[in-house]
Specification:
Layout: H1 2-11, H2 16-26, H3 29-38, H4 44-54, E1 76-79, E2 85-86, H5 89-99, E3 104-107, H6 116-215, E4 245-252, E5 255-262, H7 267-278, E6 285-287, E7 292-294, E8 311-316
Parallel strand pairs: 4-8
Antiparallel strand pairs: 1-2, 1-3, 4-5, 6-7, 6-8
Amino acid sequence: MASSDLDVLIDMGFEKARAELAVKKSGGLQGALEWLEDNQDKSLDEISAAATSSTKDDDDPTAEPPALKSGEVAKSLECEICGKKLRSEAQAEFHASKSGHDQFKESTEEIAPLTEAEKKAKLEEMRRALAEKRAGMSDQDKIDKKRNEEIRRKSTKETQDLKEDLAKKEQIKEAAAKRQEKQAEKAAKERIKAKIAADKEERRLKAEKDKAEREGRAPPAEPATAPLPTTSGPVASKPASAYTEARLRLQTTAGSVQKSFPVETTLFEVAAALTEESGLEVQSFTQNYPKKVFDKVDFGATLKELGLVPSASLIIR
């Protein structure tokens, strides 16, 4: 009988260890189903701990109350607190451990065993309860998975933002390095030009002096020589060279702002400053007069090189 009941419970999807424990504690299929229903939220470890605690004063802690034997007259026990009918002492002890009720009396009423229809209904009810529990666990798994995905996306976005910020800083450093390199190259070319011009003038003056000596004339007066340009001084005397700052009027979608930048600031650094202050992603600058459009190709050039000194008005795109 117990083996057949065990097979039925295992076919329903219950763990073998839990099903064996249910049959052992109840003595039959009906009691096993009730026991499984009452203990469906407990783990095997919790059930074992509770059984050990409730029987710690007995001689044999693992002993279970005997179930009704075959041919024994069926009598029932009744809980005086809630009125529930119980088939055996084992069921009464389980009811007491579950509910805390400790007052029972014998009843002459015999609890009839489940009919085949009742067994099927009980089995179906247990299957439905088990399916609902698994569905609930599945829903919780979905919620946990969604939360973990949100955490992963947030972490990915923060990492991407950090990479973009580092890339912008690297672009600013590269633009500054290129600007310095371009300035050094320009100063070197100016020095070479000045040296060539000075050598040419020196040869001209020497030729005139030699000619005057051959003709018996006084040599021509030598003009005052200008010092060679150095990297510490201005290379050419342009009108805009006296300015150290450029005043820019920047027209954005949010309104017009005026800012001052050093003349050696690149257009990329101006765009980065606007992005940092207002979050605006700058694609290009447009100058109405004279009509010019400065796109990202021009972002590495300085305000001085682009002719935006001492002041300019630009439309942000």
